[in-house]
Design a protein that fits this description.
It is built from 18 helices and 25 strands. With 595 residues, the chain is α/β, with parallel strands linked by helices. The two termini are 33 Å apart.
Length: 595
């Protein structure tokens, strides 16, 4: 994700504390490296390193940094490992320009080669540095700053925003293309940032920047221009009246709803990251040669393990043993050894049950890999290598975006292991967006009637089975209703006796499993129950199910991922209807560090 902040003031002053506070407030966007630069006359003071804001601020005394202009950046590594040289901001070849970005420049590798061939000094592997050189390239050819940014924009592919400044000047410049950017206007200063939380403590007068706009910031005014033709854009500032908490929720009523809507964007980011992460091949090579492979997690993360095991078998012909972390020790520990591989999956990277299993497995010499969201977590530090989920902070207790990014990661691994073209997976973010937009009304429409019941079942088959388990977990977690997730074909072996008139049973239907799902649907409807199907448009589902929540066309595996989205929304709407706070369900905690 990453976060940027830049400020221009009307006098030389100590900018360090402002930059540190802005960085703290952007921490939710990334926290593996932090940097700050101040510009004072002809000098740039640049300090940056790997670590969290407070660590880096203390180590490099960021608080003492002064100037009239300042930039800070929070990094969530995608291009280049977290390291001091890859941390942002970056300088140009001569050290006259300094800039930082958020987002992804997808042609970074090609651009770096061009810059080096043109004689520029490229110091890092990070795509933020490419933004600076892309501008330098045209400044050196004699372009003015706006023209240089316009041309750089044509060279830089991907979604990003960046802020940049030059020595012996009184301005900062910024551009938005796909990533968030907001301007703040205050007494004696202007500023720009990826998001409002870093601006609101300074001013509540803001201007929202649109894609394709270049901004010039002076201490007393800002100017917006179109990247297309350089023409001036007039936009009146607005006054923000919401509380900080409301702002952090990005306009959504709850963090859970925001995080549900974040899913397409974080999926995009994890796909970009995995494309270039060298650890992926390390993990796959070990899996290929292993005697047995275990995917290990708890709760929602276990459901992702289960989905991963289905994808690995279906797409790569590789059998996997998915196992709940606490069952790993009594059941499998006596059987594991150095020939085996374990992939430990956890949002927090701190779940005690998972760490216990990890420690026990390491004791038996098993190769242990991690998949975690929280950088610097115990799981990320103690496994041989680990893959980050790139979700930023997940604040809501019910996991949503971290689950879908776990599933996306498993899809990428299974595609790569099976020698399939991962290009097909690039449609996932758009399909998720389409699903969230298109199912919301149908889900809202069924909520009042489903909400009358305190007993529910959520069924799936094959690739949708883990999604049914996950949907059921979300429903019970935040509605406090009993909801059981199970294999659709198992329902007739006992639970069918629960069905009475109107009793709701949810079916997640994969496109290749329709005949079996339709049998299950009819077993429910012929007893007066209500079968709510979630699947692609299909005449058989239309004819047999009581309701059909339609998913976009996709492969069976991608479709299974999409099926969880309406279930997340249903649990959210039901929780609200019941008057509960879905972000903080009773009795639960986001990180379970106890046995
Ligand atoms: C449910 C949920 C939990 C966690 C579980 C494991 O929404 O979030 O079931 O998945 O406690 O936590 P992590 O993934 O942090 O190991």
């Amino acid at each position: 994700m990453c976060g940027i902040f830049g400020i221009v003031t009307d006098k030389e002053q100590t900018l360090g504390p402002i930059l540190i506070e802005a960085a703290r407030r952007l921490t939710y966007r990334g926290y593996d490296s932090v940097g700050a630069a101040t510009i004072s006359g002809g000098k740039i003071d640049l300090r940056k390193d790997v670590g969290r804001v407070d660590e880096v601020a203390k180590k490099y005394n960021l608080a003492e940094m002064s100037g009239r202009r300042g930039i800070t950046q929070l990094r969530w590594a995608t291009f280049g490992e977290p390291s001091q040289v890859n941390a942002q901001p970056h300088l140009d070849s001569d050290g006259d320009l300094v800039g930082a970005h958020n987002g992804n420049v997808v042609n970074n590798v090609e651009l770096r080669q061009q810059f080096m061939a043109e004689g520029m000094t490229v110091r890092s592997h990070n795509d933020g540095e490419s933004c600076v050189h892309a501008v330098e390239r045209y400044i050196d050819k004699g372009c003015d700053f706006i023209e240089a940014i316009r041309r750089a924009h044509a060279d830089l592919q991907g979604d990003y925003a960046f802020v940049i400044g030059r020595v012996n000047d009184d301005k900062l410049f910024a551009i938005k293309k796909g990533s968030g950017l907001v301007i703040g206007i205050g007494q004696g200063f202007t500023c720009v940032s990826s998001d409002l939380p870093s601006i609101l403590p300074l001013t509540r007068t803001i201007v929202r920047v649109q894609d394709g706009e270049i901004i010039t910031l002076w201490a007393d005014r800002v100017e917006l221009r179109s990247v297309k033709d350089g023409s001036l854009i007039v936009r009146e500032p607005e006054l923000i009246t919401e509380t900080m908490e409301a702002v952090q929720k990005g306009g959504y009523a709850h963090f859970m709803l925001k995080e549900i809507h974040d899913q397409p964007q974080v999926a995009r980011e994890v796909l970009h990251m995995l494309e270039r992460n060298l650890q992926v091949q390390v993990v796959l090579d070990k899996i290929k040669r292993a005697r047995h492979v275990y995917f290990i997690g708890c709760g929602t993360s276990y459901h992702a393990c289960l989905a991963g095991s289905v994808y690995f078998a279906q797409l790569a012909g590789q059998a996997i043993i998915p196992v709940l972390a606490t069952q790993f020790i009594p059941q499998y520990l006596p059987a594991v050894g150095p020939q085996d591989v374990g992939l430990f999956v956890s949002q927090s990277g701190e779940t005690k049950d998972v760490l216990n299993a990890l420690q026990a497995a390491e004791g038996r010499g098993m190769t242990c890999f991690g998949l975690a969201n929280v950088i610097g977590s115990t799981l990320s530090k103690t496994t041989e290598c680990w893959l980050p989920l790139c979700c930023g902070y997940e604040i809501s207790v019910p996991a949503t975006k971290t689950f879908t990014n776990q599933v996306v990661t498993f899809l990428v691994l299974a595609y790569r292991l099976g020698g399939r073209d991962t290009k097909e997976l690039e449609q996932i973010p758009a399909l998720m967006e389409q699903t969230i937009d298109s199912v919301a009304a149908a889900v809202l429409a069924i909520t009042p009637s489903v909400n009358q019941w305190n007993d529910l079942y959520c069924l799936g088959y094959g690739a949708t089975y883990p999604m049914a388990l996950e949907g059921a977990l979300k429903l019970k977690e935040i509605t406090y209703a009993h909801c059981e997730g199970m294999l659709s074909t198992e329902f007739k072996h006992g639970p069918l006796s629960a069905v009475t008139r109107g009793f709701p049973v949810l079916f997640a239907a994969g496109p290749e499993d329709i005949p079996l799902i339709v049998s299950g649907i009819n077993e429910v409807t012929c007893r007066g129950g209500r079968a709510i199907a979630i699947g692609q448009e299909d005449a058989r589902l239309r004819a047999n199910a009581s309701d059909l929540i339609v998913l976009p066309e996709a492969t069976p595996q991608i479709s299974s991922l999409l099926a969880v989205l309406p279930l997340q929304l249903l649990s959210y709407y039901m929780s609200i209807s019941r008057g509960y706070d879905p972000d903080f369900p009773r009795n639960l905690s986001k990180t379970l560090t106890v046995d």
